[in-house]
Amino acid sequence: MRALQALCLTWAFLASLPAGAQTISLVSDLNGRYGSTDYHDRVTAAVAGIVELQPDLVISAGDMVAGQKQPLLDAAHLERMWQGFNDTVSDPLAEAGIPLAVTAGNHDGSGFTEFRLEQEHFARQWNGRHAGLEILPGSEWPRRYAARVGGILLLSFDGTIPGKLPAAEYGFVAAMLAEYAASAQAIIVFSHLPMWPFAKGREKEVLDDPDLLALLHRFDVDVYASGHHHLFYAATDEAGMLHLAVGALGGNARAFSTSTARQPHSMAELTFDKGSLRVRALFAPGFAQELDINSLPPWIDGPLGRLTRLDSATGEQQ
Asked: What is the C-alpha separation between 156 and 190, in angstroms, rounded?
């Protein structure tokens, strides 16, 4: 895979990042049509590219299989769907020795009570599948957990229902940050729904929760990563935290809420290196196409304020 020119920003708030380079690949929304048990060729190509890159970690921001619809799928069908995912994604990564950190999406483990069977299969799928991740005490893998990879603290929670985070979920995030943030060199928090309205038609499908945002700021979280909106965007909020919207590998490509042009399918990549954070967007087909940063909106406004695109953010582009 050809190396891409990347956005490379250095911020004062990232001064404590690990001294040795650590690379994280991020994927999201890999599922096809409802009930599908196989995957588009670009998912296979993305996994092959990740295996070639050999990152320290892969994060999946949810929607790994295609559930959450009526009529409800039965257990046998859910098993076939997850087997298809393992064959295409998780098993190749495991064989390459690349850890995979996951979070539930609305299509593979929705938090709504009517999808309890899908929640159970999500838990069963990932029970014991966390090689390479140091799962920390207090975690409820795979639904919500904290883990360490090198000096980076990962924190995943159930962000599958729009609106304000339920009190129990907020309490979990607060408790894990209080316990582990101080000893982390960098912190990535991730769930399925973003906190900002990126995509046209999904403006209401966000975590509209000022208390959650304030909590992440209070513990100096470096990155909040999400999926669901099926497009890539990297921007900082007014406190300087990076919001990374991970593009889709499956499903429909989408347009920004301020545009009609659909963004190509993509995956993302973060590299922490000596106090800097490099962000790359790798686009299908072949994942050798460079992001034209000027094609992205310079800012995104939402209920929680404004996000400013990375090239316009406080910092120094290298």
From this structure: 5
Buried/exposed code over 138-157 (b: 16+ C-beta within 10 A; e: otherwise): ebebbbbbbbbbebbbbbbb
CATH architecture of structural domain 7-317: 4-Layer Sandwich (3.60)
* Per-residue pLDDT at 111 exceeds 90: yes
- State the pTM of this model: 0.92
Domain locations in the chain?
7-317
Per DSSP, helices labelled H in the chain are 41-53, 75-85, 91-95, 106-109, 116-126, 167-180, 210-218
| Mean of pLDDT values over 125-154 | 96
CB atoms within 10 A of CB 181: 18
- What average pLDDT does the segment 135-158 reach? 97
Distance CA 90, CA 118 (A): 18
The amino acid that residue 199 corresponds to is A
* Contact status, residue 36 vs residue 45, Cβ threshold 8 Å: no
In angstroms, the CA 64 to CA 110 distance is 12
**Residue 276: is its pLDDT beyond 80?**
yes
